[in-house]
Design brief:
This protein has 14 helices and no strands. The protein has about 325 residues and is mainly alpha-helical. The chain folds into two domains: about 160 residues, Tetracycline Repressor, domain 2, CATH 1.10.357.140; about 130 residues, UbiA prenyltransferase (Four Helix Bundle (Hemerythrin (Met), subunit A)), CATH 1.20.120.1780. The N and C termini lie far apart (about 90 Å). About 45% of the residues are buried.
Length: about 325
């Protein structure tokens, strides 16, 4: 016969078990929610966005001849982040088939099926609409229009038309990554002059020496996916020659600002950083000719440092 104490103990044990189940369920729910949020954030390629934003603020400082208002800077950065996130998410949606093939991209959310393709498409479009509305409401129509152009160029021209068809894909498609300097300048001035176009040219010519070393490193990945990146269809020597040529063009464009609004701080930085970049580019070419280890990622990593420091010099030059 069951005693009252036994019944109470049994009820207490049952209650405790239910409580544990509820806590476990809540923890599982929070973990699932965090994983979902992380997957959608990954669609926007945050590390690429960081590099784009590094060029935006210094350009705004240059346009203002000093520090622009904090509100304008934050609004422009928010709009630029949404625009870049939109372009990247739509790129992930379109490239989900080849992302599954390439080891470098196999962990992206759509390749791992952690986000449904339809959801990714809607997410990218919503971010684009939000970016346009925010830039139009807080900056001006020109900046908002440039944001739309950047998204359209990256998704339609680069991702859909060029990437799988020509080895010049990253050359012309890379123009989308140059747009933040135009957006930042337009946000401050409401117009465009030759100065932001000079910065545009720096990033335009920087893109191939930045990206081709990465494509050299992951040549087999691109070949397996059927993407004709230059290192897939040309010899390492041919690729490195073009890297050197684009590097010289990039440094030449960076020196144009010396004849304009920039001063001594920027001039010294542009010369020293440019010389260091050219050295790395020529060393890469020498390694391809010698037949030894090419080590292309040395230039890839240095190119990121170069761009960040060059644009830091753009800002510091105006603030000191």
């Amino acid at each position: 016969m069951t005693t009252l104490a036994d019944s109470a103990g049994s009820a207490s044990a049952t209650s405790s078990a239910v409580g544990v189940d509820r806590r476990t369920s809540r923890r599982g729910g929070w973990a699932g929610a965090r994983a979902t949020v992380a997957a959608y954030v990954a669609l926007t390629k945050p590390r690429i966005i960081e590099l784009l934003l590094v060029t935006t603020v210094p350009t705004m400082v240059l346009a203002a001849g000093g520090m622009p208002s904090l509100g304008l800077v934050l609004a422009t950065l928010a709009g630029g982040t949404l625009a870049a996130g939109s372009a990247n998410a739509l790129n992930c949606y379109y490239d989900r088939d080849i992302d599954q093939v390439m080891h470098r991209t196999a962990r992206r959310p759509l390749a791992r099926r952690t986000v449904p393709p339809g959801n990714a498409l809607v997410f990218g479009l919503v971010l684009g609409v939000a970016a346009t509305a925010l830039l139009a409401a807080t900056t001006n129509v020109l900046a908002a229009g440039l944001g739309v152009a950047a998204i359209a160029f990256y998704v339609v021209v680069y991702t859909m038309l060029l990437k799988r068809r020509t080895s010049q894909n990253i050359v012309w498609g890379g123009a989308a990554g140059c747009m933040p300097v135009l957006i930042g300048w337009a946000a401050v001035t409401g117009s465009l002059s030759w100065v932001p176009w000079a910065l545009f040219a720096v990033i335009f010519f920087w893109t191939p020496p930045h990206y081709w070393p990465l494509a050299m490193r992951y040549r087999d990945d691109y070949a397996a996916a059927g993407v004709p990146m230059l290192p897939v269809v040309a010899s390492p020597q041919a690729v490195s020659i073009r890297i050197v040529a684009y590097s010289w063009a990039m440094v030449a464009c960076s020196l144009l600002l010396v004849a304009g609004p920039s001063g001594t701080v920027y001039a010294v930085a542009a010369v020293l950083l440019g010389a260091a970049f050219l050295r790395e580019a020529h060393l890469l070419h020498a390694r391809t000719r010698s037949g030894g280890e090419v080590a292309p990622m040395r230039l890839f990593h240095w190119s990121i440092t170069y761009l960040a420091l060059l644009f830091l010099a753009v800002a510091v030059d105006q603030l000191v």
